[in-house]
UniProtKB/TrEMBL annotation:
It is an enzyme of class 3 (hydrolase). PANTHER family: ACYL-COENZYME A THIOESTERASE THEM4. Residues 68-141 form the Thioesterase domain. This is Acyl-coenzyme A thioesterase THEM4. InterPro entries: HotDog_dom_sf, THEM4/THEM5_acyl-CoA_thioest, Thioestr_dom. It is a peripheral membrane protein. It comes from Nocardioides aquiterrae. The keyword Transmembrane does not apply. Its EC number is 3.1.2.2.
Length: 166
């Protein structure tokens, strides 16, 4: 079995029903957003919360932009990856076609934030999703919307195999 085939086999297992409250599996071990074995990654851990996905997350010094402030691209990465967990609930692979982020307040290094994402509507292959990043005092520091387009798992096989072990 090639690396790509092995990866796709694990993904098919991940698109099964996950009970409410369940921790959701990483997309793969080296995923920039959630892979536990990516030394540059965010290691995002998300769980199902009803029809949404939620995560508690803090950024570290690898993700700094302006001093003390998380780089906007790092925030976008984590939000994009959060949406990737929603796909488990939807039950189909999809990829980001459009991603918008409104940066409402600085996101601080070493501060824990709550992320929540959900599907707002579905139209054919298009999944319209939305997410927020909230500080512990309830302030919304970033909001996002995105359009994902559903694809078959063959989409990823066509793109070549990353070097992965799950
Ligand atoms: C599954 C495991 C999760 C993996 C980890 C998740 C991590 C986070 C997610 C990612 O990082 S994904 C990686 C980044 N994204 C990509 O690499 C996607 C690159 N783009 C593509 O491969 C193709 O553009 C794509 C497969 C998304 C679509 O190409 P297609 O030729 O299959 O479809 P098409 O371009 O016709 O668009 C499909 C539909 O979307 C609509 N559309 C396109 N752009 C849109 C837009 N900006 N807003 C609204 N709708 C849009 C388009 O009109 C059309 O609507 P209809 O089906 O109703 O005709």
């Amino acid at each position: 079995m090639t690396d790509a085939e092995a990866l796709l086999a694990t993904w098919e297992q991940k698109f099964r029903p996950h009970p409410d409250g369940a921790d959701l599996p990483a997309h793969h071990n080296h995923c920039l957003g959630c892979g536990p074995d990516n030394p540059h990654g965010h290691r995002l851990q998300a769980r199902r919360h009803g029809d949404s996905v939620v995560a508690s997350h803090s950024f570290d010094g690898r993700h700094v932009g302006a001093p003390g402030i998380v780089h906007g691209g790092a925030v976008a990465t984590v939000i994009d990856d959060l949406y990737g967990f929603l796909l488990y609930l939807v039950g189909t692979p999809a990829v980001t076609r459009r991603l918008t982020v409104d940066y409402l307040a600085p996101v601080l290094i070493g501060t824990t934030y709550r992320l929540e994402g959900s599907v707002t509507s579905r139209e054919g292959r298009k999944l319209f999703v939305a997410a927020s990043l909230t500080a512990s005092d309830g302030r919304s520091v970033a909001t996002s919307t995105a359009v994902f387009v559903t694809v078959g798992v063959d989409h990823f096989g066509r793109c070549g195999a990353p070097s992965v072990d799950d």
